[in-house]
């Protein structure tokens, strides 16, 4: 949403709020007459217009500008370190049930795009693995309380990279611990 259209949206929202306060104040008067239908229809139309503008401006407008930045970075240089990533999956908390794999007693879970993956990722990221239905990561039980994570090598080379980092158990926020681990 451009700055000017955001300003118009905000002005319309404030105007609708003032109109609502005026209507409530007028309705509480003992000799008040009902509001004309045109006022009610106009308020409903203004509310609907503000909702559509907000959805477009704060939702799809942001998505379009982000995709344009990604496309521009891809055409400039595919190896540009400052280019925005095409997909980032940051997990704070996931609870997976590790189950024995076929023919093995080992407990494991698979993360990726196959129909039988334990954790299926959204296909909207545009990754090559999503189009081909490949998995990205295998998780295995390690002892009684440990977890072993390893990326699954794709059958063909792709531009997707799986980064795994173990966070130290020392104090601090998860972001601070991640910055120390890198």
Folded structure, characterized:
With 182 residues, this protein is of the alpha+beta class. Helix content is 43%, strand content 13%. The protein has helices at 3-27, 37-76, 128-132, 174-181, and strands at residues 99-100, 107-112, 119-120, 135-142, 146-151. Strands 1, 2, 3, 4 and 5 form a 5-stranded mixed beta sheet that branches. A hairpin with a 3-residue loop joins strand 4 and strand 5 (146-151). Helix 1 (3-27) packs antiparallel against helix 2 (37-76). The protein is elongated. The two termini are 35 Å apart. The mean pLDDT is 78.
Give the uncertain stretches in residue-range form: none
- Largest sheet, described in full? 5 strands, mixed
User: Ends: how far apart?
Assistant: 35 Å
Mean pLDDT across all amino acids: 78
Helix share of residues?
A: 40-55%
Rg (C-alpha, Å): 26 Å
Category from helices, strands and their pairing: alpha+beta
Number of helices: 4
- What is the general shape? elongated
Order of helices and strands: HHEEEHEEH
The count of strands amounts to 5
Task: Report strand %.
Answer: 5-15%
